[in-house]
Design brief:
Chain lengths: 126, 111
Amino acid sequence: QLQLQESGPGLVKPSETLSLTCTVSGGSISSSSYYWGWIRQPPGKGLEWIGSSYYSGSTYYNPSLKSRLTISVDTSKNQFSLKLSSVTAADTAVYYCARSHPVYSSGWYVGRVDYWGQGTLVTVSS
Amino acid sequence: QSALTQPASVSGSPGQSITISCTGTSSDVGGYNYVSWYQQHPGKAPKLMIYDVSNRPSGVSNRFSGSKSGNTASLTISGLQAEDEADYYCSSYTIGSTLGVFGGGTKLTVL
């Protein structure tokens, strides 16, 4: 059974960099069939895609976060990571790592998310 | 990309059927059959309930069904049970965005 587990600091100071890692177990991150990404949910609010990556390193970022965002994949550790710089209180959220099934239509789409991590709350505060 | 439009809340009594709508445009819901629905209980990660408009993943109850008409997708839950009380989110492919778009979410209350 595939499992995803987020890890990283739960508290980040304003203007600093938020760093999270997702460890994948029960399956290989190098599969050609999936994208690996991050979704966040501010307290009491809805879901927002942060970005996604293919195992080869191709990345797709939310345009509103692109200038601050880096998503990378480490196939040797079966992990992928998120770095979001210059954080503010608006970045306070539960961060989920996720596996999705990409499809091609008028362009690539990350597709449905069938596996999620349990989520980790990251609070931005001094 | 604008979020898909969902009602903020719906409610129903045990045993009844309810439908949650998800309205977009011809650039997303109306133009492609890549609508998914997720169920989220408080404090838990979302769970995939429906994908590609009307397909159910293995293990999801057949009380959950999806459909689409024009620019609006719908999630129907029949034989409502207390455990169905949760937030529900739709998502769809949208032209020009690899990440697609989510709906704002609907809180289902089982009376």
